[in-house]
Amino acid sequence: MNFVTTIFVLFFLPVLCLGWALRSKPLVYRYFITAAGLFFYAYTGVEYVLLLLTVALLNWGCVRLREHDEWHELPCPHCGDTVKLCVKRGYKRWPLVVCIILHVLLLAFYKYAEPLFLLLNDALNPDSTLHAWLLESGMGDIVLPAGLSFYTFMGLSYSIDAYRNPELPRRSFTEVLAYVSFFPTILAGPIMRSHQFFGQLDARPAEGSDFSEGMSYILSGMFKKVVLATYLSQQLVDPLFASPDDFSSAAILVGIYAYTAQIYCDFSGYTDLAIGIARLMGFRLPANFASPYRSLNLQEFWRRWHITLSQWLRDYLYIPLGGSRRGNRYVNLTLTMVIGGLWHGSGLNFLIWGFFHGIGLVVVHAWHRLKERWSHLSLPRWVRVAAVVGAWALTIHSVALLWVFFRAKTFTDACAVLRGAIAGQAGESYPPAALFIIALVLLLQWVGPWCYNRFAALQARLPWVVQALLFGLLGGAVLSLGPEGVLPFIYFDF
Predict the structure, then answer these.
(1) What's the pTM value of the predicted model, to 2 decimals?
(2) DSSP 257-278
(3) Residue 344 catalytic?
């Protein structure tokens, strides 16, 4: 269910009103939020609701099974008789290990079964029995369920955090299901940690900022997605990546940076919508973007881009691998980014994308350690300014170049785009408005947060009726600027 559709509005308005009416009744509210999440997810495919229930059951059961009481027979200090006493509460590891393995197998099946099927199908003899069985198995028609990657990551964070922190309270199955099925985050994040969600699930009074800031976030997300991302996608990016040979080298270069702007507007736009919708319901979601295209190196970029995924990979993959304390930190970094790339897709292009981001992080870490030896040097101001500008330019160009592998359907398609960009070929040109939008997106990296804060502060001073009217007028204006129909969000595919 796309956030920017009439059907979602018809779903959300009753949920919003009933949700606040039931906030003072915690048990009823938990069931209501769970039911709303299941209904929302069922719209993507009723058959996938069972999968969502399975993930919730796995993580709830994992936490329940991890505890066991250790009993010992000890003499009673009063009567001397032998009695059986619970000495301490122990924590078993095997439920967590099984839970992680099952989640990995689940993700691997839905993400890699179809590519593996196609690979075997091409390699086998068409007349063989195995080839016939594969065709009848239906494995080539497996579709990745919407949001699977995100709600499995959220479920795993609950199980792992409960194992790491035994003092955390155990949650009921309804609470765990409400957490993984929370509809503002289930399809494409942000990846909310369990303690962040459960801490807000309890009754809390509405705040005046919930309404004004929630609407501001929604308007920001609508503008990024409906106007900027959709225009770039339809007018340049999609046609270019579908047939790069039809475009001039200049158009391909502009198209590469157009996709760099598009994916930011699309994904950060979705995040703004999710944050705004949750905020209207009284939940504060974690930030997922912090002007990533103003970064001076790839390490800073990943601290600003898809923040919740970066933190998840750091806490549950990079650090358990050894981080910077055990083993080779550079190998751990590269391996983490490679796995992050393969999480996005099974193609060689995603492997390349993750690998070179990992290599880039290794270079940045090595450079930081090298700079420590030169920290005593005092450089002229112009040298420092030139170094900052050069670092920014190198980072934005590197990110844009690697986005080609992320956007292309295959590694071969990515190479065709890059080859066309440097071949000096003639062909279709780019729409001049694309340059303006790319420049606007880069400008927003510096002034966007300030504009949002100013708008939200000014809006908060208005009566709530006026705020609602203003929201309706501006929302209608944004929709009128966009094309007929809104494309699905990019990260719904992951």
Answers:
(1) 0.90
(2) HHHHHHHHHHHHHHHHHHHHHH
(3) yes
